[in-house]
Structures are given as structure tokens and as C-alpha cells.
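Q: Could you fold this chain for me?
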Amino acid sequence: MDAKTSFAQGQLKSIVERIERLEEDKKAIAADIKEVYAEAKGNGFDTKILRKVISLRKKDRHEREEEEAILDLYMNALGMLPAEEAA
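A: Sure. Below is the predicted structure, expressed as C-alpha cells.
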């Protein structure tokens, strides 16, 4: 085996091991997040709405407004908005 092949194998092994460690970290973080949602639910918060709020906070104001406008358009087209909101 030449030096290039040996170097590439070492590099590949290092990358794979780093990814494996990060995947384990990701599992631990997901478990922590699940515990926080359980705590929120135990304190009377609606976790479905909480997830939506967190999703909306990731977006900038313009992106949220655009999404809301499209949602209103679709809901209006489906007759899901009260008459005063549809105007």
C-alpha cells in the first residue's frame, strides 16, 4: 500500500468516526429536546403550537408574512375563512 492510499484510508476513517460521534450527539440532543417538550406539556402548554412557534421564529418577518398570505389565499379559496376575513 502506498503512502497516498494509506493517507486516504486514515482520512476516511477519521471522517466516519467524526460523523458517528456527531450522530450520537444528535441522538442525545433529540432526547433532551423531547424532555423539554414533555416538561412544557406538563406545565400546560400545547406542544403542537409550541413547535409551530419555534418553526416560525426560525423565519424572518418577510418569510412569515409571505407564508401567512399564501395560507390565507388557500383558506379563502377553500371557504375556510369567515366572510369578514375573506374581504
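A (continued): The chain has a mean pLDDT of 93.
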